[in-house]
């Protein structure tokens, strides 16, 4: 009996050994297969070391692990912006290299730019803008008692006048326009209209400029009286007090290097108020009689004709 039980016991032990032997062989194979397919498998510690997912790894293990290689993202360097619009000086420099453009015109553009940087937009478009009138008086100008009309304004500045354009040579038409409109409120008395009259009647002298006769002749087309006069300071104040206006032809100095016309329309405690058809800056200042007197070459006073 004892031997039979011993044999049975030995058979059980042998069976267990064989079972665990087979299991020991199969489990690693199964684990390898499952790992290959991406499945995490836990086996008995006595048979196989468990593979822990990253979330179960210790902090020290994660710290010891090399950081994944990351290629830094490099933003492309933007291409430099290139302006397609040339500067005023570039327009002049290019024109100087063009044999079809008169050197005298190029010099006039350079003189204008050197004298007043405000004119840069006009020069940039000088050779590309259409030489046509682009509009009449603005509503805000109509509300002002003495509006300023800039000769190189895009509304009329590119219109041909004499040797070049109103923008460069039209100080006389622009000054007369300011006086005639301020006195009569006739909206047709724009700089381009005065320039057209001057050209048609032959008042523009090529190579010289607008003849002074225009200053007294054109007012006959309006209810305005014109008289040639270089006033004293007291006479200037008296005429302005009566609502009269002056146009002065100026020599070299604060307003020009060659010749220029300006309008004087009022005065205050600091000096006389001027509308310079070439310069906003000059028109925002007040001028003492002493400064003006030394530059005045001729003058005309304008008033409404008495009925």
Structure characterization notes:
Keywords: Membrane, Transmembrane, Transmembrane helix. Residues 146-277 form the Peptidase C39-like domain. Residues 57-83 are annotated as: Disordered. The chain crosses the membrane at residues 21-42. This protein has three domains: 2-49, no CATH class; 86-128, no CATH class; 129-304, Cysteine proteinases (Cathepsin B, Chain A, Alpha-Beta Complex), CATH 3.90.70.10. It is built from 13 helices and ten strands. It has helices at 2-36, 59-64, 88-96, 103-115, 120-124, 139-143, 166-169, 171-184, 191-200, 214-217, 233-241, 280-283, 289-293, and strands spanning 160-161, 164-165, 204-205, 209-210, 224-228, 245-250, 260-268, 271-275, 286-287, 296-304. The strands form three sheets. Strands 5-10-6-7-8-9 form a six-stranded antiparallel beta sheet. Strands 1-2 form a two-stranded antiparallel ribbon. Strand 1 and strand 2 (164-165) form a beta hairpin. The radius of gyration is 47 Å and the shape is globular.
